[in-house]
Design a protein that fits this description.
With 257 residues, the protein is mainly alpha-helical. It is built from nine helices and two strands; from the N terminus they run αααααααααββ. 51% of the residues lie in helices and 3% in strands. Strands 1-2 form a two-stranded antiparallel sheet. Pfam families: Haem_oxygenas_2.
Amino acid sequence: MRLPAPRGHMSAALVAALRVPPLPRPALLVSGGTRQAWLDDDLQLTLWICYELRMRGFDDVDPGWEDHPALTQFRAALEARWEESLRSLTETTQPAVLSDAGEAELRKHNAFWRPRREMRSVLRDIHGDAYGARSERTHSVLFTVTLRDLDGGPGPSVDDMPAPTLALANALSLFGLHRRLVGALVGFLTAVDTIGGDPFAQLLPVQCPPDDVRLGFTVCHELHARLTQHVDAALAEGRSSLRGRWLVSQGRVNVGC
């Protein structure tokens, strides 16, 4: 995988820095943004690049960037803004009732951010990794439990994905890469299964603080509901909900954004 096209000042600065060998003091700066965090394409893409660099890397980026102190500090500042935004969410958005075309398009978004493994198995692995039932230890829950199960095969690329889709991927990464947020990860992954119509909260194998689990559950449901609204609104306007995709509707051709 290669670096995606930037979408604003932060992602442009990050991509430019990553295209050259690591510098002692790269020009990276966190801006406040003018949109809500989950709709901020620049913030979401910048965070996604930081997470992807840590977990799987890019073919055109020097491996020395992965643990670069300046990049670690930069990512932490982005995460602070993102976590604050997630903690302010409440489950108030009703999922859109999508047409068959809308459901087909939503599946493209979900294919980008959702883990492929059955969630009960994932949660059992989290229990073992976070609470010592497994002997192998790693630097993060997500790397061993979730990211290894994402499908790296053909499918929509990050350049196709709008901010609401990246927001789901970045929430999953935030919760999974910090052990203090393992309860939120459990709640988030439980919500993934309920979105699929197979709730099993009573079968959770991990004992976590209820408030943390509730945070992850709320974040997943609310962000996914907002994604369905995004898909529905785009199709109603005769355009694709994916970035840079063309959709023929009512005799017109429009570019998705």
